[in-house]
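Quarterly update from the structural biology core.
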Amino acid sequence: MQAFPSRTRLSRAVREFLETEASGGIVLVAAAVVALVWANSPWDGAYDTLWHTELRVDLGRWSLSEDLRHWVNDALMAIFFFVVGLEIKRELVTGELRDPRQAAVPAIAALGGMVVPALLFVLVTVGSAGSDGWGIPMATDIAFAVGVLALFGSRLSSAVKLFLLTLAVVDDIGAIIVIALFYSSGVEPGALAVATALLVAMVALRRLKVQHVSVYVLIGSGVWLATYQSGVHATIAGVALGLLTPAEPDGDGSVADRLQHVLHPVSSFLIVPVFAVANAGVRIEGGVFEGSGTARVAAAVAVGLVLGKLAGILGATWLAVRSGLGRLPEGGNWGQMAGVAAVAGIGFTVSLFISGLAFDTAELESAAKIGVLGASVAAAVLGSLLLLQATRSR
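Predicted structure, tokenized:
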């Protein structure tokens, strides 16, 4: 049975996106469980050995050498962010974000859901070694969040589901900006200029009606490599390439729709689960919070994701509706908005990603990841309970 039935008013592209995310969320849960069990089993040494295996690639005088975990985080996740870029582009051209008034409420809600968790994180960690992780609780995991909403089927209107999707897309835009501006280091202007020039060349080729996919793949690989060398996190290249993909209908959907149709399942069912196995394997043992600032980091992540998201999204939504900028999604009520706000506290994928960028020490990174895992479970349970109560009332 489909999680989002065809009789709803959601477009085919949006239904397909939501259904893939909901199904991918199940695979993501399984991958996270595998990682946790493996890392805390008698075979934990094999887990560490696998993800610290060095992989070297030589391209002429260029040489790249990283461990397997970094190849997953820097290269495979660029494809994930490319799919994110495609969805942002679709929303801007044909989706909710094309109409500023229609997008106002979920966009303002997303802003509240980013600012309040970050502020709470700073308040909890102020003066400690972990304060650099303020970007961790800003993220919302679309797959997990959509998966929770899918459990309620037709009891939640399509407009409420679309509200969450639009909120999560704006949230992704915020996360991308935060990664680019605050979690990139040692920017090399020359390499960044090469990446920019290649992106301009790609736009020019589009204007000249060049259709050969291999040309774009080659240039896209060059953009990724130049971005990687520039010091800006390489996944930003994936977002930039997604945003440059044509999303205007051309008789058979659009180029962005066709690429998303092919790559979205690969991202949801392969890339993100592999990322989860590589990054969610945190040892949970006595003394895990003994390092300086570790307990405060874990607490700050949990407070930000569980309470910060709920308060930030619900409060910003109330302000947007109260000020007349927009209204609640059709068929929704404040109880459902509270449930959606709580569900948005499931930060899993991007929160784990930022955890790996924010800290230089393994102790702080592990503490942040434990906070992300625990908070995501708590947010899912709290959101489900609130939605259950709201849909029963309805």
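Residues 362-393 form the longest helix (32 residues).
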